[in-house]
Each structure stands twice: as structure tokens, then as C-alpha cells.
Design a protein that fits this description.
By secondary structure, the protein is α/β, with parallel strands linked by helices. Helices cover about 35% and strands about 25% of the residues. The protein is globular, with a radius of gyration of 26 Å. The protein binds 2-deoxy-2-amino glucitol-6-phosphate (AGP).
């Protein structure tokens, strides 16, 4: 979603701001803008095109300044038009904002009564006028921009990360966060702020993560942070491990393609701690994990989208192997539902970004109603979700830039398999031999993923046909049903083909009515206990003219025939089979989207980090 960059330096900050915005493009946006203090005057440029267009405007107008803020906007309040693009301005004050201000209507009325005129439909514009009004005419010992922003954010209800500059004070810019990500970047005689570390990779690796409620003044020489209670606080400085190479495309055409093919390495890195181990230990999940895991009697998984699908797969493992009751719930539903807390449940949140507003709020809600134990599985170090959880496991997939989540999903599944082993062992349901076998399977997983990626040319042939269709149906049974859901989500989000997933046994209870010769059907058909049941379901499809595309194991007895296309998986991974079957579905979506000429990495209407509810 929206991305923020801010900079103060002794040089022109416009190239730094634009480079930062380019690196935040992956978050999803529909307009962009920047404002700099140039001499004593504020200059603003905005565009409803890509950041590259904003760059052209900046060059054409020779915009420069040693102090500036910039923004990519993902529209919430007001259409993606230039007048709604950030920065918003009030007098000499300019503001960029990520999040939603819930009390913007009431504030707009108050500010109108004071004489402020509104020119956009955004909630953000109220912040600009509010800061201007609280600044009361410029810097003095009592009324600095820092004071004005602190006073202003105290009046805001909602989620925000903001950056503010004022032409009346060239010595600083101010940032504040509450429920949306923001960090400071520390340079040498120059300092920065951004929504994430990737935006600042070209200028610094030293970062300070702001906490909710923090307001910070950033100057050339340093920064001052005030916490929610108004106390001056020092936050730790981290050296980001992110390298420029990790966020470059390299030989690939798209980030999604790169990330699909990085999966063997991403899973190997994530499982590094068990690669040479002969057994698994609870401490993989944190120093207190054993005590927590011995206390729990159930698991509650909360997540959104692809991460929710990982949770659904995990339910089969956790109940089937560890014998622990497991519920999986969509975070945005759970947070508003009257549910019955179980103080002995382990609340697991799963998230690639660790920023997803619904997942964060669901965790907060779970804690508020009495859950005591929490574990987060997340791909971003120091993310809000990791910091809010008692136990944590960092997947080491590396930065995931494509909006469609790929390597984050398979690494989440690898961790959830590991968790299942740990819990099964603690509950006396895993023999030493079984533990050894499962560890072998986990060790083999990167190799198996690499061989499954070889099916790409076969999947591409399917994708060419899918690209011309309007609908598709994905079928699976048991633990592969959530994989069918993931396949359908991937296809719809980047190819815009309407896709539905069903547990194959449910087909005859309604969706079979949709099947005719225009409905391509993908079936995930590993040679497991449900294969014969699945085959019967597929007969029902074929009998109605539906064209079948079957992902089968080598030993699944299914042969290609008229209207039945079979791709055999080159490797299998026992209980880890769902992880392998995900790969062809990611490739199918990728190639179908390419065929349709879509922007694979930045699909319409979607954002990478969903930081608003
Ligand atoms: C996946 O391809 C999606 N873009 C989306 O469903 C995503 O998984 C969801 O928004 C959750 O994000 P998170 O994992 O960062 O919490």
C-alpha cells in the first residue's frame, strides 16, 4: 500500500526520494508525488502515472531541494486523481500519509469552521490543515513543527504513518506512526525515513524502527523520538541485512518469476537450522517455546490471503500428526467476531509482510480477550507482527516484491511442518524413526522443489489455453484442498480470470452446475488416501464436458485422454506434498497473466502490504 520516503541532506534529495519511491512501487500504488523545500519555498509535483513519470516532471521542472517528502498512494478515500495524490498542502505545510484517519469527517468540519478550504476527497488533507493550524504561524521556541505534529496526532483516530515538512523550517522534517509501518534511516550528516528498509537501501543500512505512538524530528545531524506518552526515548539502531542484490531483478523478467524460482533456496535458508540436526527442538521457535508448547491444548491460526491458506494446510498436519485441535480463521473476520477465548490456545499469526492491518488487529484482539500464548511466522525482521508476538519464527525467503505471494507461502509451509514435528514430539506422537524420516523429507525439500520447477514448459502450454478463458475451477481433497484455493487465488489476482476452488467432494452440492466445455478444471491429484474419491469427482466433471488439467504423482494411475491433460510431478515429498503441488499452480498463474499482457508484479487494485483494513 502507500509508501513514504523522507530525506534531509546537504545535497539535492529529489533523486533519493524518487529512488526510494521506485523501490516502494512493489507495495502497490495508483499515484505518486513529492514536495521539497527549495530555497524558502515549498514545491510539489504529483502524478497519476508511475514514479518514472513523476521523475520526468521533476526533471522538466528542475525540482530540487535538500529537504523533502515523497509518496506513492493506493487510493482509499477519493479516486486516484492528481488532486487526491499526496503530498497534501496547507499554507507552507506539506504532509504524506499512509493509513486511514477515521475521524476525518468531524475534523474537516472543525477545520472548515476555522476557514480552511478543502481541495481533495482524502482523509489526509485534514492532517495538513491540522498541522498548519497547530503550527500557528511558524517556528518559535514554543511552536516548532515537532510540537505542532505532536499536538495534531493526538487528535487523530485511526491508523497512520505520516511525514511532514514546512517551508517555515528547513532544519527538519517530522514523522509519526500509529498502526502503519515507518522507520528512520541514519546517514552520515544526512537522515531519512521510509515505509520499509528497501526504500533506503541506496543511502543507508542503519535503521531505527519506530513504535506505535512515536513522533520523531529528523534533522541533518540526528533525530529525536517522543513516545506516545510524550517522553523522549532512544530506540535501538539495527543494521539491515537487506542487500541491493536481493531486491534487483537480475536475469528474470518479473519479480514473481524470480521469486518462484528462488523457492528451493528460500526453503533451504528457512530450514537451515535443522539441515544438520538429528532432532527438532521447541527452542527453534524461541527461548520460551518449550514452556509455552507444554501448556497449550489447542491452536488458533489467524491470517489473510495466501498466508491463510498456509494456515489451512497446517490444520491437517497439526491435527493429523500432532493430535492438537486447530482452528484457522480469516483475520478480518476473527477480529470482529464474538469468539470464546481459550487461554491455553497457541495463537499463530502468519504473514509475509508482518504489516497486514487485519492480522495485527486480530492478534491484538486475541490477546485482549484472554489468549496468553502467541507465535508469529513472518518474513520481515522487526515487523510489527513479530514484535507483537511472544514467540516468533522468521522465514528466510528474502524480500518478496511481486504482489502475488509465492516463496513466502512455501517457506511458511516449511515452518508449519517443522512446528508440527515439534508439537507431535512433545505430545509423544512422533517416534525417533518418524522424526528422522520427516527431517530427511525436509532436507530433501529444496531438491524436490527444484525438480518440480522443471515442469514449467508443460504448465506454459496449459496457461496458453487458460489465458483465453473467463473462468476456471480448482479442485483438491484433504490437505490439497487449501492448495487448490491457493491456485485459484494466484490465477485470479494476476490474470484476472475468475477462479474458484472447491473441495472436490463438494462439487456435486452445487458448483457442478457451472461445468461445461468452457470450464477448464485443475485437479490436484497426489497419490494419497483420497485419490480414488478424487477420481470419481473428476469423472463427474468429465461427464459434463469439463476439460481436466490434472497434477498427478508419478504413481497416480491417471492417463491423458481426450479432454484430460496430465502433468506428472517429477518428485514427491510424502506429507510435504502440498508444498510441491503449489509450484505448478504458481507457474500457471504467472504464464496465464503474461499471455494476457498483465502487469504480473503489480496487478490492478492490489497492494503488497495491506496496511489498512
Ligand atoms: C497473495 O498472493 C496476496 N497478494 C495476499 O493474499 C496476501 O497473502 C495477504 O494480503 C496477506 O499478506 P501477508 O502475508 O503479508 O499478511
Amino acid at each position: 500500500m502507500c509508501g513514504i520516503v523522507g530525506a534531509i541532506a546537504k545535497r539535492n534529495t529529489v533523486p533519493i526520494l524518487l529512488e526510494g519511491l521506485k523501490r516502494l512501487e512493489y507495495r502497490g500504488y495508483d499515484s505518486a508525488g513529492l514536495a521539497v523545500v527549495d530555497g524558502g519555498a515549498l514545491r510539489r509535483i504529483r502524478s497519476t502515472g508511475r514514479v518514472a513519470e513523476l521523475e520526468k516532471f521533476a526533471q522538466a521542472d528542475a525540482v530540487s531541494g535538500a529537504l523533502g517528502i515523497a509518496h506513492t498512494r493506493w487510493a482509499t478515500h477519493g479516486a486516484p486523481e492528481e488532486r487526491n495524490a499526496h503530498p497534501h498542502v496547507s499554507g507552507g505545510v506539506s504532509v504524506v500519509h499512509n493509513g486511514i484517519i477515521e475521524n476525518h469527517d468531524a475534523m474537516r468540519e472543525r477545520l472548515r469552521a476555522k476557514g480552511y478550504a478543502f481541495v481533495s476527497d482524502t482523509d489526509t488533507e485534514v492532517i495538513a490543515h491540522l498541522v498548519h493550524s497547530n503550527l500557528q504561524g511558524g517556528r518559535s521556541a514554543e511552536h516548532t513543527l515537532f510540537d505542532a505534529v505532536k499536538k495534531s496526532v493526538a487528535e487523530l483516530i485511526g491508523a497512520y504513518a505520516i511525514a511532514v515538512v514546512s517551508e517555515s523550517d528547513k532544519s527538519c522534517f517530522i514523522v509519526a506512526r500509529h498502526g502503519a509501518p515507518l522507520l528512520l534511516g541514519l546517514g552520515d550528516g544526512e537522515n531519512f525515513a521510509a515505509s520499509d528498509t528497501s526504500a533506503l537501501i541506496q543511502v543507508t543500512q542503519r535503521v531505527v524502527y519506530l513504535e506505535d505512538g512515536d513522533v520523531a524530528e529528523i534533522t541533518l545531524g540526528g533525530h529525536t523520538i517522543c513516545d506516545a506518552r510524550g517522553n523522549t526515548v532512544a530506540r535501538p539502531v539495527f543494521v539491515s541485512q537487506l542487500t541491493a542484490g536481493a531486491v534487483e531483478l537480475g536475469p528474470y523478467s518479473h519479480y514473481m518469476q524470480k521469486e518462484i524460482f528462488e523457492q528451493p533456496m528460500a526453503v533451504a535458508n528457512t530450514l537451515e537450522m535443522v539441515t544438520n540436526a538429528h532432532s527438532v527442538a521447541p527452542q527453534l521457535f524461541g527461548a520460551d517455546a518449550e514452556e509455552v508448547f507444554r501448556d497449550i491444548d489447542s491452536v488458533l491460526i489467524l491470517a489473510c490471503g495466501t498466508s491463510f491458506h498456509a494456515g489451512m494446510v497446517a490444520r491437517y498436519w497439526l491435527e493429523g500428526f500432532a493430535g492438537i485441535p486447530c482452528n484457522v480463521e480469516i483475520a478480518s473476520e476473527y477480529r470482529y467476531r464474538d469468539s470464546v477465548p481459550d487461554p491455553k490456545a497457541l495463537v499463530i499469526t502468519i504473514s509475509q509482510s508482518g504489516e497486514t492491518a487485519d492480522t495485527l488487529a486480530a492478534l491484538q484482539h486475541a490477546k485482549a480477550i484472554g489468549h496468553r500464548h502467541s507465535l508469529s511466522i513472518c518474513n520481515v525482521p522487526e515487523s510489527a507482527l513479530l514484535r507483537a508476538s511472544g514467540l516468533r519464527f522468521l522465514t528466510r525467503a528474502g524480500p518478496e516484491i511481486g504482489v502475488a505471494s509465492t516463496k513466502a507461502f512455501t517457506t511458511q509451509l516449511a515452518v508449519l511442518a517443522l512446528l508440527t514435528m515439534v508439537l507431535a514430539k512433545l505430545r509423544g506422537r512422533l517416534s525417533a524413526e518418524g522424526e528422522g524420516d520427516l527431517l530427511d523429507s525436509l532436507r530433501h525439500l529444496p531438491t524436490a522443489l527444484a525438480s518440480v520447477l522443471q515442469v514449467e514448459p508443460l504448465v506454459k502450454v496449459w496457461a496458453e489455453k487458460f489465458a483465453g478463458r473467463h473462468h476456471a475451477l480448482f479442485l483438491g481433497r484433504g490437505i490439497h484442498y487449501p492448495i487448490a484455493m491457493e491456485g485459484a487465488l494466484k490465477l485470479k489476482e494476476i490474470s484476472y480470470i475468475h477462479a474458484e476452488a472447491y473441495a472436490a467432494g463438494e462439487l456435486k452440492h452445487g458448483p457442478l452446475a457451472l461445468v461445461d466445455e468452457h470450464m477448464p478444471v485443475v485437479a490436484i491429484a497426489p497419490n494419497d488416501a483420497l485419490i480414488e474419491k478424487l477420481k470419481s469427482n473428476l469423472q463427474e466433471v468429465r461427464a459434463r464436458g469439463g476439460e481436466l488439467h490434472v497434477l498427478a504423482d508419478q504413481d497416480t494411475r491417471m492417463t491423458a485422454s481426450d479432454g484430460v491433460h496430465v502433468i506428472r510431478m517429477p518428485d514427491h515429498a510424502g506429507i510435504l506434498s502440498p508444498i510441491l503441488h503449489t509450484i505448478p499452480l504458481q507457474l500457471l498463474a504467472y504464464h496465464a497473466a503474461l499471455q494476457r499482457g498483465n502487469d504480473v508484479d503489480k496487478p490492478r487494485n492490489l497492494a503488497k502490504s495491506v496496511t489498512v483494513e
